[in-house]
Amino acid sequence: xxxxxxxxxxxxxxxxxxxxxxxxxxxxxxxxxxxxxxxxxxxxxxxxxxxxxxxxxxxxxxxxxxxxxxxxxxxxxxxxxxxxxxxxxxxxxxxxxxxxxxxxxxxxxxxxxxxxxxxxxxxxxxxxxxxxxxxxxxxxxxxxxxxxxxxxxxxxxxxxxxxxxxxxxxxxxxxxxxxxxxxxxxxxxxxxxxxxxxxxxxxxxxxxxxxxxxxxxxxxxxxxxxxxxxxxxxxxxxxxxxxxxxxxxxxxxxxxxxxxxxxxxxxxxxxxxxxxxxxxxxxxxxxxxxxxxxxxxxxxxxxxxxxxxxxxxxxxxxxxxxxxxxxxxxxxxx
Amino acid sequence: xxxxxxxxxxxxxxxxxxxxxxxxxxxxxxxxxxxxxxxxxxxxxxxxxxxxxxxxxxxxxxxxxxxxxxxxxxxxxxxxxxxxxxxxxxxxxxxxxxxxxxxxxxxxxxxxxxxxxxxxxxxxxxxxxxxxxxxxxxxxxxxxxxxxxxxxxxxxxxxxxxxxxxxxxxxxxxxxxxxxxxxxxxxxxxxxxxxxxxxxxxxxxxxxxxxxxxxxxxxxxxxxxxxxxxxxxxxxxxxxxxxxxxxxxxxxxxxxxxxxxxxxxxxxxxxxxxxxxxxxxxxxxxxxxxxxxxxxxxxxxxxxxxxxxxxxxxxxxxxxxxxxxxxxxxxxxx
Lengths: 334, 334
What we know:
The structure is a homodimer.
Chain A: E1 3-7, E2 12-16, E3 57-60, E4 71-77, E5 92-93, E6 98-102, E7 106-111, H1 125-143, E8 150-157, E9 169-175, H2 180-196, H3 200-211, E10 215-218, E11 222-226, E12 236-240, H4 252-272, E13 278-283, E14 298-303, H5 310-315, E15 318-320, H6 324-333
Antiparallel strand pairs in A: 1-2, 1-6, 3-4, 4-7, 5-6, 7-9, 8-9, 8-13, 10-11, 11-12, 12-14, 13-14
Helix pairs in contact in A: 1-4, 4-6
């Protein structure tokens, strides 16, 4: 079982994932070379269902049995989980500055498509909509579990973005704690709301839609922008136009529209940046803080074309070498 | 000139480095391939002094002229600076949630050795001591400049750590702002001091030296440990045993001792992890907050053997796949 550790030096939790731990010696040769990823060995390809833990949710053809082929989107527990549902959220003091906790939570893989070679830019739009409907489904299910405080949905696309398996998949981790970064964003937004009586994100979106300088694309209910002070080159954010603090509150129709917006955006990024590796992250309020007046969920997409180096790790200040307005124009035209 | 941008959404500053900016199109092929780095073209090799801006500080042989060969350690302004000394720290409101500021500051390169093929693990210890004496020198000089609020000294070693030039060098950036990450650490340490009347780092070091579980090595005045809740596998920290909040307060003798400790540690990491790419960062109190009772400077070394993926970017919570106690034992034995 893995372990969550907390240090009073910075008030942050870290996952020490001993379940996926290699021995320290194994790192000698582990310089980021992804393992061979042939279809014969791929645990996510149809016919290989027995190579994964049993599915927890599935969209599959009528009449096909669980854990056999015939699925369209399949959700399974991660075989090398960062967190597992055993244990509880009880803190164990190590001394007066350190605490530890069971590596308690959930870690699921959403296999997006039976076809090893598809991805969110090449799938039929109906398939992308199904992927997003499963995001919504699992997000709601894990958020409803009172043992988990925050649910993080993310996708690592390509070795530069931290994945070693090329079969299209996303992941979702439910944690028994609220990350400091999220709490900071919530505190900032709540302070703004207390002062101005408004959601700072709704206000920001109004300004962005006025100036249009950083606007990438818009649909009826979503707006895609480059952030004014983005950490990474071409870091892009998708916001719902209506006020909502939790991703799980999205309706099935809105979720279908979101799938279309995301596919459009990913195709633009692919064209503009020559098929970059990228991460997608859904940023939502904590699981049991629903309908907040002051917070606004969003999705971030970070193409991995720049690298955090010593300055960024040492200061937390990022150097972005592409002006967000130029990036927005470039993506609009792509 | 580059630009500093601030967003009220997260209260963080970002450097938009238009001086090093490529056009967005250039990123199409910029997938992290380092440029060719032959000695003939290396701007840091002796005889090529005219390829860099004029030196701002130098340890050189008697009788040799500035900006010619004959130097041992050479400090020059970065040719592609993130920040430059033109401008001022005046904030320009863009609207009620965004601000910008001149990309105002200093960005220097410390060329550590005339020999293209040396590094901190292969240099003679006298040479490493000279490098650290120059760290001290430039740190004190830039910290004394009232226009700069924080000074970040760092080293990117290898392409995986964000450098494209292999000639051994470090960098130092002076900023007109205090990074949020540093202010958070200061706030946490000050709260502890207010409550317990003690430096939380001194207290932590006392505990670590008692249990020895995460101890890597010790000298008379320094202690090297794996952090209890470290973000990255084999992330290692060097602390002075005496209480001091600012790196610049180090004496020349202590600085020589530190050079020896750092070389020992880097040799251990090289052996243990098969010559990994790594970053070094000096974390010190803000330039004009000297002699703080509650803060403690330190140096962090992060071997780049793990990668921040979507979960880390989306939550700020890191997954570390090597137990710090196991990493410490492995380094002690290396």
